[in-house]
């Protein structure tokens, strides 16, 4: 019997890459997607040789079709779909332009939905679908309204998808990272040392989380240990927002 297969969108850096490494160590066949040439090249150099690294734009439905075909050709089926691709564009309301709004919605919501749609026929009975959402959706961050709206669309889908796919025993859950040490901060214009200085003191655990800590939660949701967990959102945030 072949090893279970996992597809991770946004899997060439940060949480996605850490999850790819962890699932591979636990015996999964793994495919990751990304669109940044630099992180794609790095992933090809540093991930295990049998992890499939595929260029794909999360905004593109035609790329979702191509990814699904690659999964069908290489793996035949999927046991885990980790819809992790996403971007953040912090900005106050009066500074958000239409292009930024569209890019956030297309990448964070539309792209993940259509990747699920296109790979749905490949999901095995009892498969696990996991969305990356983010703590900002439920706890609020100044300048994060559109990013939160785009990620929040995923969270709003989770209960309905969980009910719809339950007859196939497909579980649908979300993971919401808090402040995690990943490249997304630098992409958003905040150096890591600034993030640690400004944010860590407000977290009860007094530090940022790691991509590996989020990956462990994703791996749990992908495993048989979570066989009766569906329609849920697990926050991985070191207690962020508690006691304030």
Automatic annotation (TrEMBL):
Keywords: Oxidoreductase. Transmembrane segments: none annotated. The keyword Lipid metabolism does not apply. Gene3D superfamilies: NAD(P)-binding Rossmann-like Domain. Coiled coil: none annotated. SUPFAM superfamilies: NAD(P)-binding Rossmann-fold domains (SSF51735). GO terms for molecular function: oxidoreductase activity. Belongs to the short-chain dehydrogenases/reductases (SDR) family. This is Oxidoreductase.
